[in-house]
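Troubleshooting entry. Yesterday's outputs looked truncated, so today I'm pasting the complete records for two proteins to confirm everything comes through intact. If either block looks cut off, that's the bug. Protein one:
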Amino acid sequence: MATILLHDTRVPAPNIKADLVMTVGPSDNIFRKLHELAAQIEQQCLSFAPGWTHQLQVHCPCNENGLQLGSGLTADNISKAFAILRFKTGSILISGCGAAAIYRMGNNGLLMCKRLAASAYSNVTASGGFTLHQLTATWNALGKLTALQEHDVNGALVNGIPHPGHTSIEYFKHTCHQKASQPGTPVRFSFSTIMAQVKVYALQVWQLSLRCALVKA
């Protein structure tokens, strides 16, 4: 697993240990810079681990005009810009700005992050802005919103809001247990019980993998 840092010079570089660093100036063409980054990932990182294990950390300002990363990224051009990084990263963390914020007269941050995730085929995590309790959202590689988390000003987790499919999963688990407890022939009861447990364990593994993905992100 490699940590890749992409940061704009308008903000200080974060104090993190990165295997690959790409610096972007305000006047740089972001499309050209991302092509350079893709080539460097192939040369320096893919020899150590598969691309989906890499994490890309993006540090840049953000306002109603979108991500201030080089020449700029918005919901309109981010898909085209990050398509070059498809399969080269497993997760993208946008920190230091409210990338997921929706501006009434400007960039739609939620749509931008959704399109970024689908374009780069990576989990994307971004915050909705700086408030007393800031909300962080995560999209999966298909561009589906999978989790919402609330953090305090120190970055500590205050509350985790279940992802949109949580209710369906809980209902499915309840149904499995209900079917397993229904009377029937010994053979049918045994088979139903085993299948119900397998489904429940599969769901638990899925939920654990989601948590691990969020921690890595």
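Protein two, checking that the full record survives here as well:
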Amino acid sequence: MEQKYLDLLKSKVGEDVVVEHALLGGMMNEAYVVSSKKGRFVYYISTAQANEMVDRNLEKETQNIAFSLGITSENIYFDLKNGIKINRYIEGDSINHMDDFDYKKIAKLFATLHSSKKKASVYYDPLGRLVNYKKEAESFVKRFDEDFYDLYKLIEDNKDFLLSQPRVLAHNDGQRSNIIRDLDGNYFLIDYEFAANNDPLYDIATFGNQDVYEGKKLLEEYVKLDPCKDALKRYALWRIDISLQWYLVANIKHYRGEGKIHGINFLDVAAHFLANARSAYSLLKENK
């Protein structure tokens, strides 16, 4: 950790602060578990591209809403200019490191956010984001994988259907790495960089980042709490949209040289998300 970041940390949580270890898994932040006499915290240092992509005022607004609902940790410091933040640490672990977790409790976690009647100040616009990422990626890549174009057209063809869905306050990045199970078996949703109003089933689709069928299992629990029209179709289409977004972002990160900085092969990440989009398309065809 650079000295300037360590100095800031000391000024906020105490000179006795100890950096325990880095957290793995994020493409948007470096994150560290730290401790002092004031307690344990997570210290987030955002990447340059994250600060271009994220509305920090909106992130802070939605983080505070989620804390008021009891589904996330308390934020104690937030720099709106550069995205540096310090949150209280939840004693537990990300379910990304677990083989067994409670889909019913995770569905309830999302339902708590979606049914809160709270709203953000903006729409997330996942279709617009896909278009914008494609334009940016095209400045680096002359030709994408062939499957990308067919899947992209599928999303374009279903644009009106997707835009017609109800909108609630959504997290928009509810992948396993952003869900924490504490020592008492309670579940929490962290990292609100992308939170905004959106179709609630977009959140369920984000849970399928690693495995489309894990997201489908969560969908089955979620619709027991909130029956949704065209649930599986919406889930599969949003899963394709999300995978294509991350496919493009991973390509951008690779060609911007961020892989060397973070020790991540972003071309492998891109390949994973394109395969994930194909799986979502297969699911869509299976259930027509």
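Both blocks look complete. Sanity check on protein two: The chain is about 50% helix and 15% strand.
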